[in-house]
Amino acid sequence: PQPHAAAPSAPAWPVGPSMGKGHFYATIPRHAVDKVASGQFIDLALLLPPRTLSADTSDVVRIDHDRASGGLLIAHGSKTSRRVDDMETWLEAWTVFAAIFCNAHPTRAPELLAYQHTMLKASQKFKFSAVYEY
């Protein structure tokens, strides 16, 4: 039997020589990967894995109204969403973005590296919140 081929209209996962099944952005949702690869805007925070809270950090508590029973549901979470609020976190998300984008557009890597350098230099001179808006 022949292997099943993906439908021609379905975007392919970006998989290069070193980007097999276990590549470092394997946990990013496909819709996010497709947006980056096609050059669409994406919030960099969506490219970050959820932050796992350590044992010495208080649990995240979410309280919801259970419509079925009329009572309250209290959920203790072990993960929380991430925010891009410092240069280190931006660089983590940017690295994922650049890996995905450059896999689809390898000739554009110098542009991304130049932008990364601009962000690094600006973050050394100004508050990160102002730099991130740039």
Textual characterization of the structure:
Helices cover 37% and strands 12% of the residues. It is of the alpha+beta class. It has a two-stranded antiparallel ribbon. It is flat.
Give a topology summary.
Blueprint: H1 30-37, E1 51-52, E2 60-65, E3 72-77, E4 79-80, H2 87-104, H3 109-125, H4 128-133
Antiparallel strand pairs: 1-4, 2-3
Topology order in helix (H) and strand (E) letters: HEEEEHHH
Query: Proportion of β residues?
Result: 5-15%
- Class derived from helix and strand content: alpha+beta
Query: What ranges have pLDDT less than 50 throughout 5 or more consecutive residues?
Result: 1-20, 53-62
The general outline is: flat
The overall pLDDT, averaged over residues, is 74
What portion of residues is helical?
25-40%
Number of helices: 4
Head-to-tail CA distance between termini: 53 Å
Strand order of the largest sheet: 1-4
Rg estimate, integer Å: 19 Å
Largest sheet: 2 strands, antiparallel
**Strand count:** 4
Question: How would you briefly describe this protein structure?
Answer:
The protein has 134 residues and is of the alpha+beta class. Helices cover 37% and strands 12% of the residues. β2 and β3 (72-77) form a beta hairpin.
Salient structural properties:
two-stranded antiparallel ribbon; 4 helices; disordered N terminus
